[in-house]
Design brief:
Pfam families: DUF4350. InterPro entries: Class_I_gatase-like, DUF4350. The chain is elongated. It folds into 2 domains: 20-255, Rossmann fold, CATH 3.40.50; 262-332, no CATH class. By secondary structure, it is α/β, with parallel strands linked by helices. It has 12 helices and 17 strands. β14 (190-197) and β15 form a beta hairpin. Strands 2-16-3-4-15-14-11-8 form an 8-stranded mixed β-sheet, with helices on both faces.
Amino acid sequence: MRRVVYAVLLVVGLFLVIAPLSIPVFTSSTPFSVLNTGWDGCSRFGKLLYGTADGKIVPVFSPFDSFGLSGKRGTLLIIGPDMGYSSAEIDEIREFLKNGGTLVLMDDFGTGNEILSGLGLSARFSSKPYRDVFYYKNENFPVLVRILDPALAENVSGVILNVPSVLQGVGGEIYTSKVAVVGSDFSQYPVMAEVDYGDGRVILFSDPSVFINDMYGLNENFIRNFADYAFSGPVYIDEAHHSNFNLYQRGYITVRRSTDSETIFYVFLFVALIALFVESGLAWLVVEKTLALVSRLLPSEAGEPVEAVVRRLAERGYREDILLKMVREIETGRKLGGGK
């Protein structure tokens, strides 16, 4: 019977180590959502952030005041918002920043300016796209080459944009060329900027399309540099301010765990130690000693000594010698004698 028990333990242990896991997968078709695996989603960027933030990624599906953003620590990512922010939500962002948080706001022609205005910042996203003489494929894909921060520029020859906006009213870390055009104005414009706010910081980027899946391969080195530069965990990702946000279960993925021979060896060793412990009698000895220790620690019931009980019964007419004989036979485990 014991062999069966040990075999069952061994099988269960190996199963827990090597069995695949089935995990439900939820996706979205919303542009700029990290749950969107399509061309206009940011799932690849989200996966990168998962590694950068040590797995501490929290999608936010509710208003910031309901979520309690002001009491959080880490980084808030807002990418491609097209729904308005209430004053209560902006207050939450303000307190989040004052307490040392980081806001990464990526926008072009959405509602990002509501946040900047509510925070009292002078920076704004331009309402018009810019054109440049340096571009990839066509003028809708201008190329940035002026990256001032060495950490952002490492292994990056250029950043390819996709119908971008520019920043106004603020200095920058990354600029267009000096002949960029916004409307009818030729100038050099910032595309990325960083602003201190309280104990925190606000990082602005005027083209969220750089981070979509369709553009990820063209800009991967820069995106990785940017993730290291701007993000630290936990990262809160705003999904609540995408107007057509949807979430559906796509199915399940199977996670197959790779198990090395060392792990399997430890499973066998664990079961073998259990068998040795039981078969050698050590288990029962430990149980016996434990019970004995517990019995000594527990308070004994208060009562009269046996001799006092015998004397009291003798005073009532019982023969003392027979009572003492009964006590001795009980103590020694012999059968009681009937003689007087």
